[in-house]
TrEMBL record:
The keyword Transferase does not apply. GO terms for biological process: DNA recombination. Involved in DNA recombination. This is DNA recombination protein RmuC homolog.
């Protein structure tokens, strides 16, 4: 129950419920109206700054339009000014480039003249140097020829005989065998020491005698004979002697046989006007040669007196080498003209080789210097182009004095 003044209302009454519902609805409407009024007030308060900002923004847009018009006018003025300045700059650059090009041409011409003068001086110095080198080359060739001749003589002095070592008693049992052995050994030695056309084996002399070997030496001394027979029996008896009496008898037989052989050589093979005034007695045994010089010096002296020189295989080789030098000297005298002509040709060939090598070296050096000069000029031209591109004219005026010629003459 609800008591309102003097009246009482039951909650279960439909009218009470309807009135209560209407009151509640009315209350909600009032609350909504209050909330709407408050929201409108807040919206009005918020719209006022936005309206002010819109007004400010409109003013700014108007000012921006005016600034854009002014900027367009300024850009047109700058464009005209830049075009005029660019035209003046191009004209100035063309003038400077012409000036720089003229300076470079002048310097290149000057460098060419200096290079030509330096080249002329260098050629003159090279000509003088080559003249001195040709004299030194001639002297060196002459000394080389002399040394080669000495080496040739020394080399021919060394020779060894080859063959099996056999007993003289087994091989030389008779005179025919001894003669053949001596001739074979003599032929071997002579063929190794002398040229083939300078000797003759078994040569027949004007007196009808046959020499074992005749060596054709020039006059003097003339052709000389070598006899290869030797008295082996007396040496064998001397070697086999047991008693004093046998030794003395063998020594006497040795002296008689050797003296007879020396006299036979002297009378048979030394012919005045045909052969040399001496002959050689060849002993194919070093032992017999050593025995004669050790125990029979009078036989050696007898051979000297008769102009018959006793030689062994070793001393015969040395003697033949001396004869070879004589033959070579004689032939060189005969061919002296041809040798001098050949030496002159050889000397000229050497001079040509030296001249061509020097010219080639000069060309290589000149090409290397030209390449260095071109590289330097290209580098400097690149730097100058960069400076022109950057409009750096003050540095351009300073650099021409430091231009280096393409070819630097040697001092």
């Amino acid at each position: 129950m609800i008591n309102v003044g003097a009246n009482s209302y039951a909650l279960s009454d439909p009218l009470v419920l309807a009135a209560a519902g209407a009151g509640v609805l009315l209350l909600l409407i009032v609350v909504l109206l209050i909330a709407t009024v408050r929201a409108a007030g807040r919206s009005a308060r918020m719209a006022m700054p936005l309206s002010q900002q819109m007004q400010v923004l409109g003013q700014n847009v108007h000012q921006l339009g005016m600034g854009q018009a002014q900027l367009q006018g300024g850009l047109q003025t700058v464009s005209d000014t830049q075009a005029h300045a660019q035209a003046q700059m191009i004209q100035t650059v063309e003038v400077r480039l012409a000036h720089v090009q003229q300076q470079m041409q002048d310097r290149l011409a000057d460098n060419a003249m200096r290079s030509q003068r330096a080249l002329t001086e260098m050629q003159e110095r090279m000509r003088e140097t080559l003249h001195g080198s040709s004299k030194q080359t001639t002297t060196s060739l002459t000394q080389l020829q002399e040394r080669l001749a000495s080496i040739d003589k020394a080399q021919d002095n060394i020779t060894k005989l080859s063959g099996d070592v056999l007993s003289l008693q087994d091989i030389l049992s008779n005179k025919q065998t001894r003669g053949a052995f001596g001739e074979i050994q003599l032929t071997d030695i002579v063929s190794k020491a002398l040229p083939r056309d300078s000797y003759q084996m078994q040569a027949t002399l004007s007196n009808g005698r046959r020499a074992d070997c005749l060596i054709h030496l020039p006059n003097p001394p003339g052709p000389i004979v070598i006899d290869s027979k030797f008295p082996l029996e007396a040496y064998e008896a001397l070697r086999k002697a047991k008693t004093e009496w046998d030794l003395n008898e063998a020594a006497k037989a040795m002296r008689v046989a050797v003296k007879k052989h020396i006299n036979d050589i002297s009378t048979k093979y030394i012919l005045e006007g045909e052969t040399a005034d001496g002959a050689l007695m060849f002993l194919p045994s070093e032992a017999v040669y050593a025995e004669l010089h050790a125990n029979f010096p009078e036989l050696v002296r007898a051979g000297f007196d008769a102009r018959v020189w006793i030689v062994s295989p070793t001393t015969c080789m040395a003697t033949l080498n001396t004869m070879r030098a004589i033959l070579k000297d004689a032939r060189m005298r005969e061919q002296a003209g041809a040798i001098r002509t050949t030496l002159r040709q050889l000397h000229r060939d050497v001079e040509i080789v030296v001249e061509r090598v020097d010219k080639l070296n000069l060309h290589f050096g000149q090409a290397r210097k030209d390449l260095d000069g071109i590289s330097t000029a290209a580098e400097r031209a690149g730097k100058r182009a960069a400076r022109l591109d950057n409009f750096d004219f003050e540095e351009i005026d300073e650099t021409p004095s430091t231009v280096v010629p393409l070819t630097t003459p040697e001092t």
